[in-house]
Design goal:
With 560 residues, the protein is of the alpha+beta class. The protein folds into 3 domains: 2-198 and 271-355, 2-Layer Sandwich (Nucleotidyltransferase, domain 5), CATH 3.30.420.40; 357-460, Substrate Binding Domain Of DNAk, Chain A, domain 1 (Sandwich); 498-559. It has helices at 51-59, 87-106, 123-135, 146-158, 200-214, 224-243, 262-268, 270-287, 307-317, 330-343, 480-491, 501-516, 519-538, 541-559, and strands at 2-8, 12-19, 22-25, 35-36, 38-41, 47-49, 64-66, 78-80, 83-85, 110-117, 139-145, 163-170, 175-183, 186-195, 246-251, 256-261, 296-300, 349-351, 361-365, 375-380, 388-394, 403-410, 420-428, 439-445, 451-457, 465-471. Helix 2 (87-106) packs across helix 3, helix 4 (146-158) crosses helix 10 and helix 12 runs parallel beside helix 14. The mean pLDDT is 91. The structure holds adenosine-5'-diphosphate and magnesium ion. Magnesium ion (MG) binds at residues 9, 171, 301, 331.
Length: 560
Amino acid sequence: MAVIGIDLGTTNSLACVCQDGRAVLIPNSLGEKLTPSVVSVDENGEICVGAVAKERLVSHPEASAASFKRYMGTDKVFTLAGNPFTPQELSSFVLRQLKEDAERFLGEEVTEAVISVPAYFNDNQRYATKEAGRLAGIHVERLVNEPSAAALTASRISGEEEGSYLVFDFGGGTLDVSVVDYFDNVIEIVAVSGDNRLGGDDFDEVIARSFCAHHQMDYDSLEQQRKATLLRLSEKCKRELTRQDETELVWEAEGKKMPLSNLLLAGLSQNLFDRISNVVETALRDSARSIEEMDEIVLVGGSSKMPVVSLYLQTQLKRKPGMVASPDEVVAMGVGIYAGIKERKQDIKDLVLTDICPFTLGTNVVNYVDDDNPIMSAVIERNSVLPCSKTDWYTNACDNQTKIVVGIYQGEAFYCNDNLRLGAIEMDIKPVKKGQTRLRVCFTYDINGILEVEVTDCTNPGQEQTKRKVLTSENLRLSEEEIERRLEELRAYKLMPCGGIRTKMVMARGERLFSQTLGARRQQVTIMMQKIQQAVASRNDQLIARCLKEAEEVFDRLEE
Ligand code: ADP
Ligand code: MG
């Protein structure tokens, strides 16, 4: 029985297997190595994962979800067409799909996998990832850190068994930069730094905003579907600039276009580059190393393919970053190699720094401009040495307030809503004038990832009231019975059978195009969709195949 490696990404996921010592990426049923980490529930209550679901994200946003990896290990619930799912359950569908694709590719059952996680994932997030595996019927004995997997790939390809690596992983919505040492079969993550709100999506937005400015439109007031369409067109344009130096963004439905070149894009993205610089500098500073001490700079993640990005790094670091493989495949290949090593019962130790807190922990303070958007007040700062205990004082924001909710958040964003909410403590207080309540908030965080928050109302000396909350990993963990029950329930959700996947893909794309076009072009979409439906009803495989091919050509032309 084969053990596979899985890169469970925020934007895309991949599976890899080690054959004769070589990492082989496993194609999905559409023949692609990357499966978008998107899940959608269709009209029959079937689950679709990947490219089909990504199409449905535009045409059926209420039945689809993406980027759920951001919320692993939290109690956030996603509702898809009325069905509630946790992030680990959505991830389990992606894993189930990858498992099925792998089984078809390998011709044998797959029951075990090694999965990669970001180096900064805490205990809860790691546990949630394992749980996702379990819900997908996969035993996940081991998790591997993404930068370690990338370093492993780089070392295998360069033939250098040992060295220090700067891993620059730039994905769809996250940037992670790590300094990684690989010596004597031990991979050690020396420092990590990141921006979990910076990625390829931001370049799409920069292009979309520039398009709007070019046509005197207001990007922020675009309605949801038009915005989604413009962003999609912008991403396409961005990818073209990886292949060629100049292109044009054409929004045919609106009769508008704009020329774009890598030079122009570089000018528009200055602010993003500054943020990239910050992250790289922080990683190097935290590791107490210089760029000259790095044996290799490893480019990872789809956004590292952008010429403006690699060129910027080259000028900034005065070093040419190495391209060991296609950047979006580097992590998956490393996890595949790990899986192979595991099968042969050898081992490479993978160590993460555990004695520092890799993120900021804090609470909410009122935002006087927008009540629903509280501001993050840091209590324990990122990179604090563990164990660590900090105290801060807070007060009531209005007269005669009777309750204060002390939210507990993790993350670097200015607004609490953009950070992870770990929990909250509700304090009942005596109604007094604004600013007279005295709340003492104490955060204690230890090496095992256990966070204790204690809130004491010290307004009236001698009558202090204390409430405490311990956020251990257990808070978010299900009991054995709960897992069994949920497993049973999830079994009821069937993955879309792979037989009709191409048909579904073309139909989903047709639905999206229908929602994005008008007039004659929309008519063309309708005609193709009807043709396919008739062909499907006839059950004539040759006819179906012909219609699909024709539809793909028509759709390609519409999107040209
Ligand atoms: P993640 O690790 O977040 O799951 P990936 O590493 O797959 O994501 O990166 C996805 C991002 O890479 C997207 O923003 C996508 O637009 C971008 N991307 C992929 N291919 C290219 C390309 N050829 N040129 C520019 N950007 C690309
Ligand atoms: Mg990734």
